[in-house]
Hints:
The chain has a domain at about 40-110. It is built from three helices and three strands. It has helices at about 20-30, 45-50, 90-120; strands spanning about 55, 65-70, 80-85.
Amino acid sequence: xxxxxxxxxxxxxxxxxxxERLIQRFNVETTNRNLGPxxxxxxxxxxxxxxxxxxAANAKDPTNTMRLLKFSKPVHGRVRITLSEPLTYEWLTQKxxxxxxAIRVVHTAYLKITQSASNMP
Length: 121
């Protein structure tokens, strides 16, 4: 494993683009090179909600179901709720399945690229 502080060249792995930009770039390349399905851009919203959202629960709710909340940037001292999802096992399992499907899409495209590269003279 590489220790903290190691410097590396910028590459496809170390690129500092946002997840949204990486998915856009992948989808363009996948389409242009006919590598298979693209990645659902909605995964960015899921990632953002998990990374930047807030977890809240209503003490008066008998189920005490926690919710994942995400808010807009403030405008004139007010925010708008942009996401409100029950934070349940089923919700999380569904999102994990979507991420796993996206990983398989990337892996399949990678295999096609490396396979075609190995067949080049």
